Amino acid sequence: MQFSEMIFVGGFLPLFLVFSFIGSIRKKAADSSFLQRENKRENGIFLFFSLLFLSSQGLISLLILSAIMLYSFAVGKRIHEKSKRFFAFSILILLLPLLFFKYSIYFSSLPLWLKGFMPFGISFYTFRFISYLSDCRKEGNAEESLFHFALYAFAFPVLSQGPILRYKDMREEILAREWNFTRLSRALFRFSFGLWKKLILADALGQLSNSFLSPEEANGLSGGVLPSFIAVFFSGLSFMLQIYLDFSAYTDMAIGLGEMAGFTIPENFHYPYEARTVRDFWRRWHISLSLFFRDYIYIPLGGNRLSFGRRVLNLLLIWILTGIWHGASFNFILWGLYFFVLIVLELMGKKVIAFGKARCAVGKPKKILRFLAGLKTPILHVYTLLMVYISWIFFRYRDFSAIKNVLKAHLFRNVQAFSDEKSLLLLRNHIFLFLLAVLFSSSFFKRLDTAWADLMMRGRIRKERKGKKEEEGFYGMEENDEEVEPEGIEETSEEVEPEGAEETSEGVEPNGTGETSEEGNPKVTEKASEKVEPKGTVLLSEEEHKRHILALKKIQRKTKWKIFLLDHGEQIYYLFKILLALAALAISFSAMVGQSYTPFLYNQF
Questions:
Q1: In whole angstroms, what is the distance from residue 558 CA to residue 298 CA?
Q2: DSSP-derived secondary structure letter, 140
Q3: How far apart (Å, rounded) are the C-alpha atoms in residues 127 and 290?
Q4: Is the pLDDT confidence value at 423 over 60?
Q5: To which H or E segment does residue 251 belong?
Q6: Residue 333's pLDDT is what?
Q7: With contact defined as beta carbons under 8 Å apart, do 154 and 50 qualify?
Q8: Which entry of 44, 150, 509, 512 is 20 to 30 Å from 21 by CA?
């Protein structure tokens, strides 16, 4: 059972929400009767559904995870007082099941049902338990309650695709967490968005990638010559977009599911295709995995304090381990070594640039330096996208002949033509899919959401100020008008009346009671105009006056819309999110039950 399957969305999730809601109502009733206690009921419901979810993956997976959980719980209590050898041996024992199942396909003596079998989520929860033992070794704060530790071990939102959650990030919320409808609505939107991204974008891109270039064609089964450069390139581009949207969609669903249960799950992807360097890419891609290797391997080995040569050796170890973690075949190790070379070259380039920066700046005009600085960002962005695009070729194809053929095709070798009719037809029919995928791979909607959140905050501030003015009055003393009204207001008004006011008022006849000019404005006598018109005033012509009125009306319209958005921005925002969530769920359900949405959405040409 996966998050994107009908049995989960239509059966498991509604049951989980109903029982969670009932548990939260009973807890509020208990709190109102002054029975203060932990979230035992909510934790029990969460653990029950986590075990139910894991049981759907097979009893073998449940038994293996239970055994590893009990081992980690027992070792965590003792590891703080033991030696480094005991710690290293404990980690090795924890890694043995992962290594055995990952490489079981290469053991010919194993029974057929065991070869290639991978317990559900073993890569993720093995690393989670390693992080727990490492934190216990360093800080000595092992969990004493097996029930609480089981909640962490079996937490179903992070079992299948991560992120690699640390126990210290979850400990406080196990003891006390809040479950309310505001959080639930936010969680449902995040889950619906992730489900839509997985089913409609990622899965469609996966099929499209194979339609452009199938693995059999890449392996050279058709004579070693690939159809065209366009087929190879857009197959790689589809896979590049698909792998990000697939992984990030599961993260969105995991964060949404965690928030439904009251747990805060960290972000795991932060728009990696907007990175400017390969190192920046790995700060944004699979963040929990990068932090795991940094905190539990790189820094304990010395981190950045060591010499450059030692740092390179440590990076080599980390990237080999990264490749092994992703897969058992050698192409994953090659993929890790590829990133190792790129990162070492970037570190060397950084040192060279820092050394020669002062010399390059001497004698060059500032305008040229500013121009070069402006070109730096787009050039680095294109460089990073190109390097990452090539990396997915090593990741995707396990056969080295396929990797060689695809790389040659990008150099316009080993291809029949630049383009072919099949690839052009696929591209034309799916151009809208590509545009949507690129848009959802960028931070466009995040920036839009941030801008709207800023607008809502300004609207709340405006409402607060408006409410204070209504309570206190404009001057802050309208409630005591009779008491504070100064004497002699009439006399003051008579004294400050400007001289010549009577003459001016006599010279201007109101519209409808006297003569008017052709424009419909009241006539002003020469005598009055001479007295009223201040020195230096420039009279506007009729055309300039019309332009002035049009500009004023335009400003008034903009101001009205701005005030409307400030006053009603929050309602519009949440209504729009509700409609988007419902639309995402409807489209996702239609995809799950097999209704064809492709002709309606993509084949617009």
A1: 55
A2: -
A3: 12
A4: yes
A5: helix 229-260
A6: 94
A7: yes
A8: 150
H helix runs in 411-495, sequence order: 421-429, 431-441, 444-472, 481-484, 489-495
Q: Measure the CA–CA gap between 60 and 63, rounded to whole angstroms.
A: 5
Q: Are 274 and 385 in contact (CB under 8 A)?
A: no
Cβ neighbours of 601 (radius 10 Å): 15
Structure tokens at 416: 């029949």
Amino acid (1-letter code) at residue 456: M
User: How many angstroms separate the CA atoms of 376 and 349, rounded?
Assistant: 14
Q: Do 414 and 225 form a contact (C-beta atoms < 8 A)?
A: yes
For residue 179, pLDDT beyond 80: no
3-state secondary structure of 437: helix
Residues belonging to the chain: 605
Determine the pLDDT at residue 82.
Answer: 82
Dist CA 287 CA 255 (whole Å):
14
The CA distance from 61 to 121, in Å, is: 9
Over 70: is that where the pLDDT of 371 sits? Answer: no
- The phi and psi torsions of 508 (rounded to 5 degrees) equal -110, 120
Give me the pLDDT at residue 602, please.
44
Contact assessment for residue 394 and residue 400, using Cβ atoms and an 8 Å cutoff? no
Q: What is the pLDDT of residues 106-121, one digit of tens each?
A: 887 788 878 778 889 8
What lies within 8 Å, CB to CB, of 92 at 6+ separation is none
Strand-strand pairing, 415-417 and 226-228:
parallel
Contact 160, 122 (CB under 8 A): no
pLDDT attached to residue 538? 61
Which segments within 81-193 are labelled E, that is strand?
Answer: none
Residue 413 CA to residue 404 CA, distance in Å, equals 11
pTM listed for this prediction: 0.80
**Residue 437 main-chain phi, psi, to 5 deg:** -65, -45
State mean pLDDT over 211-236: 84
Q: C-alpha distances in angstroms, 59 versus 65, 69, 118, 160, 206?
A: 10, 15, 13, 16, 30
Please name the amino acid found at residue 544.
E
Phi then psi dihedrals of residue 213, to 5 deg: -150, 110
Q: What is the mean pLDDT of residues 244-270?
A: 93
Bridge partners of residue 228, in order along the sequence = 417
**How many CB atoms are located within 10 Å of the residue 291 CB?**
17
* CA nearest neighbour of 403 among 156, 213, 136: 213
The answer to whether the beta carbons of residues 9 and 592 sit under 8 Å apart is yes
User: Would you state the structure tokens that stand for residue 404, as one six-digit string?
Assistant: 């060689």
Token duo for residue 138: 């360093």
